[in-house]
Amino acid sequence: MARLAGTRAPAPAPKIPGLYLFGAVGRGKSMLMDLFHASLPEGTSRRLHFHEMMREAHAQLHRWRTQTPASARTDSGDPIPRLAHALSENRRVLCLDEMDIQDIGDAMIVGRLFQAITDLGVVVVVTSNREPDDLYRHGLQREKFLPFIALIKERMEVVELASARDYRLDRMKGMTVYITPPGPAADDWLTRCMTRLANGETPAPRILSVDERPVRVRAAAGPIARFTFADLCAAPLGSHDYLAIAETFDVVLISDIPCLGPHNRDEARRFVVLIDALYDHRTALICSAAAPPHELYPSGDGAFEFERTVSRLMEMQAESYLGQAHLGPA
Predict the structure, then answer these.
(1) Tens of pLDDT along 154-212?
(2) Which UniProt keywords apply (predicted)?
(3) Contact call for residues 36 and 21 (beta carbons, < 8 A)
(4) What is the DSSP string of 223-240?
(5) How far is residue 266's CA from residue 261's CA, in Å, rounded to a whole number?
(6) Which of 132, 160, 188 is a domain's end point?
(7) 151, 184, 207, 311: least CB-packed within 10 angstroms?
């Protein structure tokens, strides 16, 4: 990284390769990026979350298409080079945290966008929980995405951060992860937990694309997501949606889990499937609920089947569970 202190080369592709830093959740990738960004001269580098960049990219494209008459456009019908200039803001280094491709709209433009940015001589530094070959692994039309993986390997040094220490677990130590009852005090605690885990990133709504359908995330910051119980279990979601959430996020916060029973059988069934997905992917859960796990579904049809969920909710509070590495897509 010290080589970036030199002057910017006008070559069509950067002489200094970029860096793709990947590794398990909580190993300090974002911390290293922050230290690197802070070490550069002011105005040299732009640092933002990958999803922030893609939101900005889509907003710019939409604005140009709707506000600029076709006769006044100077991009020969291709806005990507102009977009690359806008996103890099004339900086020599672009730092992108937590790259993860879930949306087909992102997948279809990210390769050309990265090529245009690096053609400007901008050095791109990326962090991700996934090695390049695992990006957008089960996405639609993935064959059109594969050239981007090749571009990463061509123009970036791919480095795995294999630290034995989980910094996420460090931040979660001492956290109460199961709060009763729901209400303003519990909501305030969930907000403080999310702020602590977000590592300085501002939470914002996000949309996951699952089987060409949108799954709305109330608030997300990197690999941290927040929902209400109604968002996840009163809506018509299924196992594929919960698997996508569990694969994408390593910490999920859920507020306002009610007592369950035959009266809300459908919501209870979805909650069981959700907890199974989170548990199987070692996703950390922080939640507020109307009762402790063993009292959530106290009696009635379905109470016996709910006992496995009770066991998992109990285990998911243990430090031994929280210390396990998050499991992404198989």
Answers:
(1) 999 999 987 655 666 667 777 899 999 999 999 999 999 999 888 778 899 998 888 77
(2) ATP-binding, Cell cycle, Cell division, Nucleotide-binding
(3) no
(4) TEEEEEHIIIIISS--HH
(5) 9
(6) 160
(7) 184
